[in-house]
Amino acid sequence: MRIRRIFVLFSLIFCTFLCLNPSFQQLMEFPEQNLVLVNQTEPQLSGFWSKIVKEEKISDPTISVSSGLNSSIAEKLDVVYKLFGIFPIKSGEIEVMSPMKLIPGGQSIGVSLQTKGVLVVGQAPIIDQNGRKVYPAKEAGIEVGDILLKINNQEVRTDQDVSNSIHLAGEQKGQADVLFKHQDQILEKVIKPVFCSETGRYRVGLFVRDEAAGVGTLSFIDPETKQYGALGHVITDADTNQKIEVSNGKIMASTIYAIEKGKRGHPGEKIGSFVSNSPFSGTIEKNTMTGIFGRINGQVDNPFYKEPIPVGWESEVKTGPAKIYTVIQGEKIEEFDVNIDRVMHNRTDSKNMIVRVTDPRLLQATGGIIQGMSGSPIIQNGKIIGAITHVFVNDSQRGYGVFIQNMINEGIDKKQAA
Fold it and tell me: Which is catalytic among the residues 163, 165, 278, 374?
């Protein structure tokens, strides 16, 4: 009995010691999925802990995936950490990445895209024959942020398509069958258009938009496939803040002719225009949480990087000095100093790093991070680790950056390896 008590007491003391040990705590904090290692499979613990906590990896070739970039392969492994090689204490999944190289961007780009369907951005009253304000579409259940897809079984792609279809339906049938997307649901409603004496047309009381345009920054290009990533964040509609579903779109060179300097409570902005004889152009195939993606053609030069440089995966990103590349005048890419103040490993969105501008020249010119700088590549220790995404509204010297790894994972099609 005494021996048993001693054993129990020893076990309690040992477990308490384990829980308080920083290295062991680090093991317990490992995410259950998507822990990314860089072309290596060494144990995560060293020294004494590597002797009592054993790491057991199970490789399954059926879950290896190809990222498409540089034809590199990411192998997924199931991992179990066992105390004394017997008692499981933690399990998860790691992804062993092969080396990859990309050409950093930094070019100012003009972005133009057309939505899938037509986006509802507002409600507009119609004065009927009795002088009353009516909202036919709103009363039928159509809301701001919905996407109009078909009217009377005919696809609508532009605001003019919507206007013409509604007027024709009002003249011929007195009602319109509208197919639309509400959040993630496809719905159909019957709306009765009202004749508007002011415009001489039948209307349903909606403001709609079919396209968006703006200025941003190119993040990277894959030299082999000519795939690119840009912006580092999703494009949303200015009025609804909803993600824009892309039907088609393009990017081209843009020139910056003025800077609105950022200040507390008011983010600054690059003011630019599209270059008519752009040396490059690209498609927009995806609009995701971590940026826009597609393929690019033409001459795209970065004077600082004539050759591709290695990708720095999430596990390689550290707090400390780094560089960003962006345009603040004309089309010239410039290099500026920043500091990675914080790295947030558990976030899967476009806010993975807190980046602070330290370059006196950039602070003087822009006040820090400004709109239009989104997508500017971040280089640390000779590797591309991410891109600028957002500015802090109350502190323009600081903003967020996205891991380049998250851009690759979300923007590039992954195919099952044979």
Answer: 374
Q: Is 247 a catalytic residue?
A: no
Closest among 20, 249, 313, 284 to 114, alpha carbons compared: 249
Is 108 among the catalytic positions? Answer: no
We find that the CATH architecture of domain 102-112+215-416 is: Beta Barrel (2.40)
Which among 359, 376, 390, 396 is annotated as catalytic?
Answer: 359
Beta strands in 328-417 (DSSP E): 333-343, 353-357, 377-380, 383-392, 395-403, 415-416
Backbone region of residue 30 per phi and psi (left: phi > 0; alpha: psi in -120 to 50; beta: other values)? beta
**pTM (predicted TM-score):** 0.76
CB-side exposure of 3: number of CA atoms within 13 Å? Answer: 0
Told to judge if 276 belongs to the known catalytic residues of this protein, a careful annotator would answer no
CATH of domain 125-204: 2.30.42.10
Give me the tens of pLDDT residue by residue for the chain, a chain 418 residues long: 566 665 555 555 555 555 555 555 555 544 444 444 444 444 455 555 566 556 666 655 444 444 444 444 456 666 676 666 666 666 666 666 668 899 999 999 999 888 888 888 888 888 877 788 889 999 999 998 889 999 999 999 888 999 999 999 999 988 999 999 988 889 999 999 999 888 889 999 999 888 888 899 999 999 989 999 999 999 887 777 778 888 788 999 999 999 999 888 788 899 999 998 899 999 999 999 999 999 999 989 899 998 999 999 988 999 999 999 999 999 999 999 999 999 998 787 889 999 999 999 999 999 999 999 999 999 999 999 999 999 998 899 999 999 999 999 887 654 433 3
Residue 218, both tokens: 């190119």
CATH 2.30.42.10 residue window(s) in the chain: 125-204
> 233, 254, 390, 396: which is the annotated catalytic residue?
233
